[in-house]
Design brief:
8% strand; Arc Repressor Mutant, subunit A; 2 domains; five-stranded mixed β-sheet; 339 residues; single chain; alpha+beta
Length: 339
């Protein structure tokens, strides 16, 4: 688990989709979870474990469906979980698909740790380390998706050996899970895990594609190797600012609108992460200024592109950001190229 755990908004999209038919419920869900449609549309956006937990609790409450996770698993379209899902679908066997899921799970959720564990002659896909703010129904969804896709992808008859959850459920929900998984179900167990006979895991997958897998693995590894954002909401603001500089839309009101927030809410959320809008705006301006200086743009062009009223204002700001003038910085880059 990373030092600052976070979860991709991709995992919240099915919840929003389930509530989309009731606009009032969807609006309440977004407000209670501190989300906006714009954030859900940003594939790179991530939320905290606490925010993820609240989102699941609200989705269950608003839907009135204790088996929401199972219904989501039945209706979520193939490919909804991006490169992680496609890597798994391209694997040669079910065991290898689960190994890839474990390897790349952090791209979607680094708040939990899962693993394959030998257990009494069976193999368990087990939650080894739980989130600091658990969302039990999210495990139900994960296991239900594994069961649904494994049935569809395995070349011969597929059967689970059992499913165990550490959280509890009422009799009606237990019956619904037995019907869905077609195996023994335990709630209130010592572990949260889904159990397989070893031979089942060696089944070849109908979707296996070695050529596609060879393309996907380097891309997934590249994403896996990226440094996670130090903050969550601030990273969304940074992306909005980078987009805004291309369209000369970097004022507080414009960025807030891009994220579906009021300026006051945007500032409040940044303050919660110990940052300010002006700090992030200056950070992005400084990074772009360095890039433009390396590319040989004139100081007047850079000043205009960064939204300064005149070059002298850019000079003063750049000196404040870096301790050097733009001319000195350009000379430094020239010296580096000359070496």
């Amino acid at each position: 688990m990373s030092a600052r755990a976070s979860i991709s908004v991709v995992l919240l999209r099915p919840l929003a989709a389930a509530l989309a038919g009731a606009p009032g419920s969807l609006a309440t869900f977004l407000e209670s979870s501190d989300l906006t449609p714009q954030m859900l549309a940003d594939a790179d956006a991530r939320v905290s474990p606490a925010q993820f937990c609240v989102a699941w609790a609200e989705a269950l409450r608003l839907s009135g469906d204790p088996s929401l996770a199972l219904h989501l698993a039945e209706n979520t379209p193939a490919g909804a979980f991006g490169i992680v899902e496609y890597v798994c679908r391209s694997a040669p066997t079910l065991r290898e698909a689960l190994r890839q899921w474990i390897r790349y799970l952090a791209l979607l959720d680094d708040a939990v740790e899962v693993g394959l564990v030998e257990s009494d002659g069976l193999v368990a896909l087990r939650v080894l380390s739980e989130s600091e703010a658990p969302a039990p129904a999210s495990h139900e969804l994960c296991f239900a998706l594994v069961a649904r896709h494994a049935r569809a992808m395995c070349s011969s008859a597929f059967r689970l050996a059992g499913v165990r959850y550490s959280h509890r459920a009422d009799p009606a929900q237990r019956a619904r899970h037995r019907e869905f998984f077609r195996c023994a179900i335990s709630f209130g167990a010592d572990q949260t895990e889904i159990l397989f006979e070893p031979a089942v895991l060696e089944q070849p997958l109908k979707t296996a594609d070695p050529s596609l897998l060879a393309i996907l693995l380097p891309a997934a590894d590249e994403q896996r190797g990226r440094k996670p954002p130090e903050t969550l909401f601030a990273d969304q603001v940074r992306r909005a600012l980078r987009s805004g500089f291309r369209t000369e839309s970097t004022q507080l009101e414009q960025i807030a609108a891009l994220l579906g927030l009021t300026p006051r809410n945007l500032q409040r959320r940044l303050k919660d992460e110990g940052l300010s809008f002006q700090t992030l705006r200056d950070e992005q301006r400084s990074e772009l200024a360095d890039r433009y200086l390396r590319e040989g743009m004139s100081l007047a062009e850079i000043s205009f592109l960064l939204g300064f009223s005149e070059p002298s204002a850019f000079f003063r700001a750049f000196k404040r950001w870096t301790g050097k003038t733009p001319v000195e910085r350009r000379a430094h880059f020239a010296q580096q190229l000359a070496r």
